[in-house]
Amino acid sequence: MKKVLSAVAILALTGSAALAGGPVVVVEEGQPEVVQEKSSSSVGLLPILLGVVIICAIACGDNDEQISMNPP
């Protein structure tokens, strides 16, 4: 009786371990993506262009002189 009981216990312990879980899926990770930063020279370009536009708007501004077609 002890032999049968020990055989059943061994089969129950090893059988459950053999069937436990699912298939093992191994997913390899790819190479990390390298992102290059923008150069700092492109950051200073916008304020310079904005300054040139403002100076041109002031220098080329509309004159308030009105020319009349009738001489005085």
Tell me what you see in this structure.
- With 72 residues, the chain is mainly α.
- Helices cover 46% and strands 0% of the residues.
- The protein has two helices and no strands.
- It has helices at 2-19, 45-59.
- The model has no long low-confidence stretch (mean pLDDT 76).
Question: Topology of this protein?
Answer:
Elements lengths: L1 H18 L25 H15 L13
Query: What's the overall average pLDDT, rounded?
Result: 76
Radius of gyration, CA atoms, in whole angstroms: 42 Å
The DSSP helix count reads 2
Q: Unreliable runs, pLDDT <50, ≥5 residues?
A: none
| Helix-strand pattern | HH
Q: Which range best describes the helical content: under 10%, 10-25%, 25-40%, 40-55%, 55-70% or over 70%?
A: 40-55%
The amount of beta strand, in percent, is under 5%
Pairing-aware structural class of the strands and helices? mainly alpha
Quick description:
The chain is mostly helical and 72 residues long. The chain has helices at 2-19, 45-59.
Structure keywords:
72 residues, single chain, mainly alpha
